[in-house]
Design a protein that fits this description.
By secondary structure, the protein is α+β, with helices and mostly antiparallel strands. The chain has helices at 22-31, 48-59, 85-89, 96-105, 124-131, 163-173, 189-200, 232-245, 260-268, 307-314, 335-340, 371-383, 403-409, and strands at 3-7, 12-17, 38-42, 63-67, 70-74, 107-111, 136-140, 143-147, 155-157, 179-183, 204-206, 212-216, 225-227, 247-252, 272-276, 279-284, 293-295, 320-324, 344-349, 352-356, 365-367, 387-391, 413-416. Helix 1 runs parallel beside helix 2 (48-59) and helix 1 (22-31) packs parallel to helix 4 (96-105).
Length: 417
């Protein structure tokens, strides 16, 4: 299905369960390589990025199978040959295999990773951190070749709290000789999930949830069962979708403790929020309130992955909303499509837009060009009068199991084709 059809203008009502986290599942699947045994990853989302990771794992000898409640991975027979081209170049998260395969095999050859076009996203931080552990890199015909005669623990300080670089250091360090101290580590909850899985496998990791991690290397790891936490970005998408359309929804299993900046924004935009052990309930006004500024930041600040969806919700605000993107330099690709729907958005600089709220927007054909922008267009379609058709939906399915089904459960008229 590469198109989504939406009959908009209906406030959302109802309950939907939030899927497992994409950003937690992918590095955990990479980490299964370090165990040399079998793991069962429960609540793993059935999304195209996970399917691509499964293909990569199978390419290097893992036995992988879906079961009713999760994914079984047997990494006992890994063959560290060159990783297949197609899946790597289409998925940025394949980069976390770099640290895992260097840790397991001592070397890896892979294409430069791809994914969404949302900025340059250089991998320099990853390479420099791994160099400090004894990894040598060279490039040849677009391929990245990494090898370490002796992978050693090191004291590493990241100049920016990169999630991917943090994951690669952790994955390499758990099997390295000696201890690794990582300072300036990313604080995102998905890092904590990766560390908890590895600790369940026998790794020694201290400082989880802080910017300073101590990873004790050289321990023999065994497989483990692990439950992937709910996806805070998917939950935030549905939450902000309700704020944009009006209505009231209950998001079952939403990880509200990881969503405080998103919940605060929803409240500032007029939503009434109630949290419990079961999830998040939001009741939204007919039209969102304007807020002075939405600014993306590293965790625990407002997530860049929800900036496009917040932008879509702000289109109907009862005033002006400034949005500043501080993480990626190309996150405003959705602006052109929203303007075609009648949104009033001024691009003030490469990292800042001013949204002048309008009472309503109209459904038109629009095209998704990346994952989160595609989800934002679906939310805009829910808000719009008339019919919206979103094409390019292959991007959306990289992170959302079934966005059409989920919004239908909330009363929306949405179909995929």
């Amino acid at each position: 299905m590469d198109s989504i059809h939406i009959q908009g203008g209906i406030p959302l009502q109802g309950k939907v369960r939030v899927q497992g986290s994409k950003n937690a599942a992918l590095p955990i699947l990479a980490a299964t390589l370090l165990t040399g045994g079998s793991s069962f990853i429960k609540n793993c989302p059935r999304i195209t990025d996970v399917f691509a990771m499964i293909r990569l794992l199978k390419d290097i000898g893992c036995r992988v199978s879906w079961q009713e409640s999760g994914l079984h991975v047997d990494a006992s027979c890994v063959d560290c040959r060159e990783i297949g081209t197609e899946a790597v170049t289409g998925m940025r998260s394949s980069l976390c295999l770099l640290g895992a395969l260097v840790g397991r095999c001592g070397s890896v050859v892979m294409e430069h990773p791809g994914g969404c076009v949302i900025g340059e996203r250089p991998i320099d931080l990853h390479l420099e951190a791994l160099r400090q552990m004894g990894v040598q890199f060279r490039e040849e015909e677009g391929r990245l070749m990494a090898a370490a005669d002796r992978l050693c623990g090191a004291k590493i300080r990241l100049p920016f709290p990169s999630v991917g670089a943090t994951e690669n250091v952790i994955l390499a360090a758990v099997l390295a000789e000696g201890d690794t101290i990582l300072e300036g580590a990313a604080l995102e909850p998905e890092i904590g999930a990766l560390c908890r899985y590895l600790k369940g496998c026998g790794a020694g990791i201290e400082g989880i949830g802080t910017g300073r991690l101590l990873i004790q290397g050289g321990r023999k790891l065994s497989g483990a069962d692990f439950t992937v936490p709910a996806d805070r970005i998917v939950a935030g998408t549905y939450l902000l979708g309700c704020v944009g359309t009006g209505g009231s929804v209950f998001l079952e299993d939403a990880p509200w403790e990881e969503m405080k900046s998103v919940l605060e924004l929803a409240e500032h935009m007029g939503g009434k929020i109630c949290t419990s052990g079961e999830g998040v309930y939001v009741q939204a006004p007919r039209r969102p309130r304007a807020v002075e500024c939405i600014r993306t930041e590293t965790y625990p600040g407002f997530p860049t992955d929800l900036q496009s969806v917040a932008l879509a919700a702000a289109v109907r605000a009862d005033g002006d909303v400034m949005i500043r993107e501080t993480i990626f330099e190309n996150r405003f690709r959705v602006v052109e499509e929203l303007r075609r729907m009648g949104a009033q958005i001024q691009v003030q600089s490469p990292d800042t837009v001013l949204v002048r709220g309008v009472d309503g927007i109209c459904g038109v054909p629009v095209e998704a060009r990346e994952l989160r922008g595609g989800a934002a267009l679906v939310v805009a379609g829910l808000m719009a009068r008339g019919e919206t058709t979103v094409t390019g939906c292959r991007y959306i399915y990289r992170g959302y199991e079934n966005i059409c089904r989920d919004f239908r459960e909330l009363g929306a008229r949405v179909t995929g084709a």
